[in-house]
Amino acid sequence: MNIERHDTDVLIIGSGGAGLFAALHAHQANPELDITVAAKGLLGKCGCTRMVQGGYNVAIADGDSIERHFMDSIVGGKWLPDQRLAWRLVETAVERIHELENEVGCFFDRNPDGTMHQKAFAGQSFDRTVHKGDLTGIEIINRLLEQIWSRNIARLEEHRAVSLICTTDGASVAGVLFIDMRTGDLRFVRARSVLMAAGGGPTMYRYHTPSGDKACDGMAMALRAGLALRDMEMVQFHPTGLLAGRDTRMTGTVLEEGLRGAGGHLLNGEGTRFMFDYHEHGERATRDIVSRSIYKEMRDGRTTPNGGVYIEMKHLGPEKVAQQFKGMVTRCADCGFDLAGDRVEVVPTAHYMMGGVVFDEDCTTDLHGLFLAGEDTGGVHGANRLGGNGVANSTVFGGIAGERMAAFVRDEGLRDPDEDALAEAAADCLRPFDATGGNLNELRLQLQDLMWDKVGILRDETTLTAAISDLDALGETLERTGIADAGRAFNLTWHDWLNLDSQILISKTIARAALARENSRGAHYREDFPDTGELESSRYTVIRKSDTGLSFDTEPVDFCIVKPGKSLIEDEAGAPPTAGMGGRR
Amino acid sequence: MSDTLEVRIWRGGAEGGLVHYNVPRQASQTVLDVVTWVQRNDDPSLAYRFACRVGMCGSCAMTVNGRPRWTCRTHVDKVTDGDSLTIEPLGNVPVIKDLAADMTPFFEKWQSARGRFHGAATRRDAYARIKPDSPARQTANAHVECINCAVCYSACDVVSWRKEYLGPAALNRAWVAFNDERDAHLGYVLRSVAVNGGCMSCHTHQSCTQHCPVGLDPSAAIAGLKKALSRAYLSGRLKLS
């Protein structure tokens, strides 16, 4: 089997906020380094940072503080976040936003006095979300892209990473095996250091928001390489995704939170408002409560033609809605829906994975030479991520990783890969061409249905146990499902197969962790264990690869900065927790 | 209008041809959904590019019934000619395979038009206080939200005539830079677009503005650059080379 080979100093997988910041900081630390960024799509144009609508949480306003941002993140994360990681996030976000504005050149919206405009966002005790209209992600990524393009940084675009290849002793990462998607050829890149920043994305659910290229590849590669995943049961659902039928890629995409905040109504299939039956804040309750309430209406059969509920804005005045939510109204209109003047079908939609690979605050991992940053990592957000903390996470830790990798490679040579492991990984990614028959599309739909129905918004022991055996069966069916070898160049169906392979593996970790957590925290809700559980003795779930499949464990949360019931800002007014949609001021 | 779309899709690279497919028509169906249906249900070897599905990444632009469009946000009802739909790769850039185009020239020109911020301040400095209603900031804001989909580049006649022409998106970016009061290299912006194939090559056909899916006006940006460049020549700040 022919595998093209080359070497680099710093190899970065992913070109979202984490990957691009890592490349920039590694280059700034040492411009002599050979840096390579590999992306599954075009640089900066695949992945999810680009899709950030809300903005960037950072404590820079008068009266706000990193302690307050920290407390909001810990309380919002239901006391499960790794406190050292959360502290690193809120502390470094201040420097990172200044870098984005002063060095990268992002345009962020301003107040009339010229200071940065910071908007209110759910679950925060202060208005701290820096933004560029409602397209903050495009601004951040476009400006970062320009900085990367203009530097001596190599790019491997439309290169899919398929396996982390270790040294023969298994102690270090030696490099990464890729498929050059444009040619279908295999390429092994040996690297002195590797950053996994491929992004998460719970696309294994029937309704999901992330970019279509996302498939949890990074987490799957890390798990296979022996690294531990934590908090995998924590999958965040956004309450209002567009619902337009199974055959359109529009389905599942986010209709923004602000619609409910502004006074939008949710109606069930009978045309009745229902949110006040579930919570005193009605449609303005938090994401998790609204998602669960919608799901209950759906499960009880009070659904719209496509099986969801309606969002209705017209009572606020169609013209006002069209003006205030221009982007959303235009997007709906492009797809044939009148958001300003009519009802639009919506459904809760899988949005973000709080769980991910265990890593340290300097982005190192248990595997020598491997670094992690962004949505592939676990521990920063705990049981729930605050809107606006996602892009802060990827850019903060991406930058840290870049600096750390530049320092790391000073004393590191290239390491030779375990050639047997490399050959095995190469054969592995070609195995779909060896099988014949089967129906790949049917398998994808089956996976999405089973995750939605059994490992979704409401879970219990019966559904989760069934899901685990269903997922095993699905994995076996995938192995028997083939692809015609009619040209490997730009073969999307091959990549659909490999996506399913990653998705099924990571789905197993979600189901397994969800079955083990016998309480309800943040994004995880067990109907058979609805209580939060004692905060002081909180533990987080950990999953590793084992000889028989997956092994499960729990670890105690280390409350090294603040203990449940305490606050760093106890004496201040307006301290978290907050329940409503908006912040203070 | 029947319940079946008569779809012709470009197959091959630079050499190739249109292949016919019957695709079931749906109430909610974008051009990207049509392409996806063919790949999933009819011919799994069909190549195309997409990512975000919501008009943010600018990856999925193709030529639809003769015009460049973002396919994830184009409902088939708005573009079909009766029941027929012809889908080809984006024009003015090379084809890789089927509907996937090579965007390299587009991004290279983006860079050469001074498409990068050069700040004087660092991450350790206070950020600039900028009045949102200052004319320069308002101009920059009106042009900055480009998704680099290359629809304008594909629609531009001058690009098809002159391979060295920077094109609307790159020049639009330069105009944003020119209006960015934080940029420490402002003087270089005009030099970058004064080159052969720079802003003066534009014939103001305004195809870019007409086709921009996010409603930007690159044509106005180019007009702004031309004006600024003329002033710089006349005042002697820039020498004709």
The name of the CATH superfamily of the largest domain in chain A reads: FAD/NAD(P)-binding domain
The total tally of domains of chain A equals 3
Overall pLDDT of chain B: 95
Distance between the termini of chain A: 64 Å
CATH topology of the largest domain in chain B: Fumarate Reductase Iron-sulfur Protein, Chain B, domain 2
Unreliable stretches of chain B, pLDDT < 50, 5 or more residues? Answer: none
List how many beta strands of chain B DSSP finds: 7
Helices and strands of chain B, in order, run as EEHEEHEEEHHHHHHHH
Under the CATH scheme, which class of the largest domain in chain B?
A: Mainly Alpha
How many domains of chain B? 2
* DSSP summary: helix tally of chain A: 15
pLDDT averaged over residues of chain A:
95
- Tell me how many strands of chain A there are: 18
How big a fraction of the residues of chain A is strand? 15-25%
- From the spread of the alpha carbons, the general shape of chain A counts as globular
- Rg of chain A, Å, rounded: 23 Å
State the end-to-end CA separation of chain B. 59 Å
At the fold tier of CATH, the topology name of the largest domain in chain A is FAD/NAD(P)-binding domain
Q: Radius of gyration of chain B in whole Å, from Cα?
A: 20 Å
Which SSEs are present, and which pair or pack?
The complex is a heterodimer of chains A (585) and B (241).
Chain A: E1 3-13, H1 17-29, E2 35-38, E3 56-57, H2 66-76, H3 83-104, E4 118-119, E5 129-130, H4 136-149, E6 154-156, E7 159-166, E8 173-180, E9 185-196, H5 217-224, E10 229-230, E11 235-242, H6 258-261, E12 265-267, H7 275-278, H8 287-299, E13 309-312, H9 318-324, H10 326-334, E14 343-353, E15 356-357, E16 370-372, H11 390-408, H12 419-430, H13 440-454, H14 461-479, H15 492-516, E17 539-546, E18 549-556
Parallel strand pairs in A: 1-2, 1-9, 2-6, 9-16
Antiparallel strand pairs in A: 3-5, 4-5, 7-8, 8-9, 10-15, 10-17, 11-14, 12-13, 13-14, 17-18
Helix pairs in contact in A: 1-4, 1-11, 2-3, 3-11, 5-15, 9-10, 13-14, 13-15, 14-15
Chain B: E1 4-12, E2 16-24, H1 31-41, E3 61-64, E4 67-70, H2 76-79, E5 84-88, E6 95-97, E7 100-101, H3 104-112, H4 135-143, H5 151-155, H6 157-161, H7 168-178, H8 186-193, H9 207-211, H10 218-234
Parallel strand pairs in B: 1-5
Antiparallel strand pairs in B: 1-2, 3-4, 3-5, 6-7
Helix pairs in contact in B: 3-7, 4-7, 7-8, 7-10
